[in-house]
Amino acid sequence: xxxxxxxxxxxxxxxxxxxxxxxxxxxxxxxxxxxxxxxxxxxxxxxxxxxxxxxxxxxxxxxxxxxxxxxxxxxxxxxxxxxxxxxxxxxxxxxxxxxxxxxxxxxxxxxxxxxxxxxxxxxxxxxxxxxxxxxxxxxxxxxxxxxxxxxxxxxxxxxxxxxxxxxxxxxxxxxxxxxxxxxxxxxxxxxxxxxxxxxxxxxxxxxxxxxxxxxxxxxxxxxxxxxxxxxxxxxxxxxxxxxxxxxxxxxxxxxxxxxx
Length: 260
Known about the structure:
Elements: E1 6-11, E2 17-23, E3 30-37, H1 47-58, E4 67-73, H2 77-94, E5 98-102, H3 103-109, E6 118-125, E7 128-136, E8 142-151, H4 153-159, E9 164-167, H5 171-178, E10 184-186, H6 196-208, H7 227-252
Parallel strand pairs: 1-4, 4-5, 6-9, 9-10
Antiparallel strand pairs: 1-2, 2-3, 6-7, 7-8
């Protein structure tokens, strides 16, 4: 492995898709190139084209890379699946190590450094946000404190008891609920762009520590079940209830839908 790993990174956790080339890690790295866009078409129609353009522009070949990284989530279920599929395909086709970074960790690294704790938020839909808390280490690098969670904006605001910066795309959606207390200080939404470069820098440090993913088995970090999964659970629950009702009726000698 190179002393300063060259990483191709993919970020598709939101409607803003991004690919990047970075060399080195968070404290010793640099961004060689990045393409970030808010497309009207799906990521699948432009993602691999952006990768090819970036590699060509930077004069980088597949053999030059040390790893491929992807934003694991949480975020858009469709976006995460597209990014994950692309990263898996590249890793398997090239034999490159595959690295994963939580989307909120990448977002936090792109936030301007400050002395206050940081809360990063993404819109989780259904009147919830994905949220995680961060504090800065002595190098000015945000370090996540605790788990990423899906929570209602008002409940998140109520849980914050010290002055805290609020950063992320969800600020423009739930800013009023999230900033319900003077302890929360929202940063401008225009700064909160989901970018691949922070993912690449964080991934290089993971590669150095040997934290490589199995491309055949890795799955996105959804945090919350998708609507399709919830629908399947509801259907299975209804079928289970119907089966138990039928069994009860057979045991009692009653016909379904009949009483007495």
